[in-house]
UniProtKB/TrEMBL annotation:
Region (Disordered): 65-101
Protein name: Organic solvent tolerance protein OstA
Coiled coil: 3-30
Keywords: Coiled coil
Gene source species: Lederbergia wuyishanensis
Compositionally biased intervals (Basic and acidic residues): 65-81
């Protein structure tokens, strides 16, 4: 199953206001467009426009409410091995063998 973000934001650059309005007109064709904003900016090279677009995609309520739950880790019956560490850094394992007769 493809994963798609529920909310997406895009920002585009335009040299002129006409280019910015064309970007907005193209975005308005998408039914998921929720808002747009054209910002006029200035720097030492001149004027440019930033177009901010926000999209919200619908997700059926049933899918969101019936999300899979986290599975619990199975508990292990393993008790481990007893060991001891000597002063010189070596390790001794205290293994007891049980005879099943």
């Amino acid at each position: 199953m493809a994963v798609k973000e529920l909310n997406a934001k895009e920002q585009h650059y335009a040299d002129t206001r006409d280019e910015a309005e064309e970007l907005v007109a193209e975005a308005k064709e998408d039914i998921y467009l929720t808002s747009f904003q054209i910002s006029e900016k200035h720097n030492k090279y001149g004027t440019y426009f930033l177009v901010d677009l926000k999209f919200s995609y619908d997700t059926p309520k049933e899918i969101m409410e019936n999300a899979p739950t986290k599975k619990e880790e199975p508990k292990s019956d393993h008790k481990g091995i007893e060991y001891s560490v000597n002063d010189d850094g070596t390790v001794n394992a205290n293994v007891t063998e049980e005879d099943d007769e």
